[in-house]
Amino acid sequence: MEEEKVLYQATLCFPIDGERVLLAFKTKKIGKDRWNGYGGGIKKGETPRGAAVRELKEESGLDVLQADLTKMAVVDFHNTTAKGENFICQVHVFVTPRWTGVPTGDEAMITPTWFEINNLPFEEMMPADRFWLPPVLDGKKIRAEVHYGPFQKELRQEVKINEVDSLPETV
Questions:
Q1: Helix, strand or coil for residue 32?
Q2: CATH no. for residue 76?
Q3: pLDDT by position in tens, the chain (length 171)
Q4: Taking the model in full, what pTM does it have?
Q5: Contact between residue 85 and residue 6 where contact means Cβ atoms under 8 Å apart
Q6: How many domains does the chain fold into?
Q7: Does a structural domain hold residue 168?
Q8: Could you tell me if residue 3 is inside a domain?
Q9: Domain Nudix hydrolase spans what residues (predicted)?
């Protein structure tokens, strides 16, 4: 039986090239078998920006400077596990127009692919992505709240999105 991953603080980073965004196909953990941005858990002593830089490098081979990341969202994912336990994972979402290197995959994130921002494969992405990701890729800063059932396969409530002027830098 598959074990559910529990994270409390995480990052996502989306490299953007004009009207295209880089996604990869996830093979493990949260988001398995779906297209996703690059990211993962924030380690003890690490800032969200530092974690985003590290995760992008580990999963895609791309190098990015913290100064080239723009924080676009904080999304609170309320998760209910198969055992009925609840936990919240707060995800700090960044975009970047600058990096060095050529995208490559790793064992967890394969087939890096550029998608047109106005034609994303939402049917093959996390269920809430269709609601909160378009405003982010359109340059809006948001706070969002998502409620997922076990293994993040279904939404339990309507996704709440609020446009904001600024976002906190730290956890």
A1: coil
A2: 3.90.79.10
A3: 455 555 699 999 999 999 999 999 999 877 789 999 999 999 999 999 999 999 999 999 999 999 999 999 999 999 887 788 888 999 999 999 999 999 998 999 999 999 999 999 999 999 999 999 999 999 999 999 999 887 788 898 999 999 999 998 876
A4: 0.92
A5: no
A6: 1
A7: no
A8: no
A9: 6-138
What one-character-per-residue DSSP string does 69-128 give? -EEEEEEEEEEE-TTS-EEEEEEEEEEES--BS-----SSEEEEEEEEGGG--GGGS-TT
In a domain, 135, yes or no: yes
The range of the structural domain enclosing residue 101 comes to: 9-163
- Are 81 and 150 contacting, i.e. CB atoms less than 8 angstroms apart? yes
Q: Retrieve residue 50's tokens.
A: 């530092």
Is 39:109 a contact under the CB 8 Å cutoff? no
Q: Do the domain assignments include residue 4?
A: no
**Three-state SS at 28:** coil
